[in-house]
Amino acid sequence: MQPPKKIRLDQADKKLILEYPDGAFVLPAEYLRVYSPSAEVRGHGIGEGTLVSGKMHVGIDRVASAGRYALQIFFDDGHDSGIYTWAYLRELCETQPEKWQAYLECLQREGKGRDPDESPVKFIG
Q: Quick one: which of 61, 5, 3, 67 has its CA closest to 32?
């Protein structure tokens, strides 16, 4: 898989813009953070992943190449262990609507939220 022809970090709007010969994609920092390929998020085996919540305000401090095959993203919450291969970044671009909807549904199912200041309240009556 070829890398994007251009990568731009928009820190103010908290997004990464990837330009390919066939079009550009805008990936919000929150989306990239909750779908990090790190072992912390994905786990070490099938079914071991962790649902990441409360990342609505996360930003990206910087990005760096990881060899010739990937990008390392340094998030402002200290997370930096995910290595995003060119193939995985392209997958995130092409499946963004479906993946984002699946994430929102999972949050709802688990009673968690995107906002770190939001805590589910259970009323006992």
A: 61
CATH number at residue 72: 3.30.2020.30
* Domain residue limits at 79: 6-110
Query: Hey, is 70 helix, strand or coil?
Result: strand
Q: What residue type is assigned to position 41 of the chain?
A: V
**Residue 82, token pair as written in the block:** 């995910």
Give residue 98's pLDDT.
98
**Torsion sign over Cα 87, 59, 26, 104:** positive
Minimal CA–CA distance to 96: which of 19, 1, 27?
A: 27
In a domain, 115, yes or no: no
Q: Is residue 121 part of a domain?
A: no
pLDDT tens per residue across span 62-108: 999 999 999 999 999 999 999 999 999 999 999 999 999 999 999 99
